[in-house]
Design a protein that fits this description.
Elements (H helix, E strand, L loop, with lengths): L9 H61 L6 E2 L32 E4 L6 H9 L3 E5 L5 H12 L4 E5 L7 E5 L2 E4 L6 H10 L19
Parallel strand pairs: 2-4, 3-4
Antiparallel strand pairs: 1-6, 3-5, 5-6
Helix pairs in contact: 1-4
């Protein structure tokens, strides 16, 4: 009978090869588990780091928004005790563009609406009563500023934009009882004015519709 330890024994050789193959397979499985665990740890670490970064960014934005809401807007003009009657006639407003007062019973749509023509001021004032910010410009405003402000309005519910040719400054922002002239679309006061006054505390009728009114 042939010995199992005989290297010339075919059965022993096969068993040796099988055992070697199994050893290599176990080694591959161990390496695979190590790689998988390492990758998982890296993914978890990245998610934790990314989550921390996003939370930090969110906290920073909230802090900036709160500061914008509580800080005065430099150069802002304010009007108090504005009347709010619905009228069917033209109104002689003491400021241009108007920031409040008697107005038409129908509002201009102000759900991120950009108009390329002048609006009836009595209808636009009604939009301000609902908490909208109204961006206006005249012929002296640059095309780049008009385009940039239009982009912001289109991304902001409760805002509208239109030309007002006879206003005294190229770029102006108005809310109910509030108004500011800005130097350009990149002026920091643009973002602050939107943050502070879109549906802000000055709004006589917060939550009132900005759709369902006039659209041209």
């Amino acid at each position: 009978m042939a010995s199992a330890k005989n290297p010339n024994n075919p059965a022993a050789a096969r068993r040796a090869k099988l055992e070697e193959a199994r050893r290599k397979e176990r080694a591959r499985e161990r390496r695979g588990r190590i790689i998988t665990i390492g990758a998982s740890v890296a993914v978890v670490a990245a998610l934790v780091a990314g989550g921390g970064y996003l939370m930090a960014q969110a906290d920073e934005k909230e802090k900036k928004d709160q500061q914008a809401k509580t800080s005065p807007v430099t150069g802002e003009r304010s009007w108090d005790k504005l009347t709010q009657e619905h009228v069917a006639t033209k109104v002689d407003y003491p400021m241009n563009p108007p920031v409040g007062g008697d107005h038409n019973q129908v509002w201009m749509n102000c759900n991120a609406d950009v108009y390329t023509h002048e609006l009836p001021k009595e209808n636009a004032v009604h939009s301000l009563e609902h908490g909208a910010v109204w961006v206006t410009y005249n012929d002296k405003a640059s095309d780049a500023d008009v385009e940039a402000l239009a982009k912001k309005v289109k991304a902001t519910p409760y805002s509208l934009m239109s030309p007002v040719k006879d206003q005294k400054d190229p770029l102006m922002l108005s809310a109910w009882g509030k108004q500011v002239t800005v130097e350009s679309a990149s002026d920091d006061r643009v973002a602050q004015f939107f943050t502070k006054y879109v549906q802000g505390p000055q709004t006589p009728e917060p939550g009132a519709a900005c759709t369902g009114g006039l659209d041209k």
